[in-house]
Amino acid sequence: MESTPVETTLSIDGTLIAFERTGSGPPLVLVHGAAGDHRRWDVSGVREALARHHRLYAMDRRGRGESGDGAEYRLELEFEDVAAVVRSIDGPVDLLGHSIGALCALEASLRVENLRRLVLYEPPIPLDGRPLADPELLGRVEDLVLAGEREKALVMFLRDIAGLGLDEIRILQAAPSWPGRVAAAHTLPREERATDGYRFEPGRFAAMTTPTLLLQGSESDPLYQAATRAVAAALPVCRTVVLEGQKHVAMNTAPERFVREVVEFLAGA
Fold first, then answer.
1. Using the 8-state DSSP alphabet, how is residue 44 labeled?
2. What pLDDT is stored for residue 43 in this prediction?
3. Global pTM?
4. Residue 174: exposure state from Cβ atoms within 10 A (0-12, 13-18, ≥19)
5. Which domains does the chain have, with CATH numbers?
6. Distance between CA atoms of 47 and 39, rounded to whole angstroms?
7. What is the C-alpha separation between 25 and 147, in angstroms, rounded?
């Protein structure tokens, strides 16, 4: 799969946000979740498969990969980062986000005017004031990062907070993107705490007309499932596809099914 050199755009606070273009066809921006960068889409050949149908813009969220980072971290800046990438592309753009990347994509949809379709895979939205992560566990992850044990911190986060099984973690460890995940382990606590402070306001999306696909694993954590239902109830034009037998990372464990659902939806099927 051919790729172009890394490109950048400026976010609202002047931070450089990097992305890599691959493929050809209608533009599709890919927003990765926690503990990753743009290479997370290379796992199980997902980016190569999507690139047969779309010109992909796989971005690095701030503090990851080739993107810069600001002096101050706020979740709202992540929303603006995604919006900046979408605005930098001429014409109608499709947008796909996974996990916290899905939350960023959802919020970015209210900040841009050239969005055509939206795909969200289990945005981690806290409901009823409940934190998504056990504060004690999150503190242990942060302690490991401060002690220089980044890989141990990452594995603990994936296993005990993100809820991935050992087989799912092994798939990630075998992928070329693993060193980048380890390098970005310090961003995990700040993102998790910022997400816990997010308050979902359904009324803000009442006038949204962007067709949206919500992907949900049938075996995902109940918190992810509840968040997906809340978003589905708020969006006027959306449908939910439940990926049977899957959890939070079907792009790793059922890549063909994941790609098929995304491509068919974006094609208007």
1. G
2. 86
3. 0.94
4. exposed
5. 7-128+200-266 (3.40.50.1820)
6. 9
7. 46
**Sole residue written with tokens 């999507």:** 50
The series of mean pLDDT values per 10 residues for the chain, 269 residues long, is 78 97 97 91 94 97 94 96 98 97 98 98 89 88 95 94 86 88 92 92 96 97 94 97 95 96 92
Please count the other Cβ atoms lying within 10 Å of the Cβ belonging to residue 229: 14
Other beta carbons less than 10 A from residue 75's beta carbon? 18
Report CA 59 to chain centroid distance, whole Å.
10
Q: How far apart are CA 189 and CA 173, in angstroms?
A: 20
Amino acid identity of residue 239, one-letter, is R
**Structure tokens belonging to residue 70:** 């600001």
The per-residue pLDDT for 3 is 53
Bridge partners of residue 58, in order along the sequence: 20, 30
Question: Is the CB of residue 189 less than 8 Å from the CB of residue 156?
Answer: no
Output the DSSP codes for 130-186: --SS-HHHHHHHHHHHHTT-HHHHHHHIIIIIS---HHHHHHHHTSTTHHHHHHTTT
- Complete edge-to-edge strand list for the sheet that includes strand 212-217: 7-10, 16-23, 55-59, 27-31, 93-98, 115-121, 212-217, 238-243
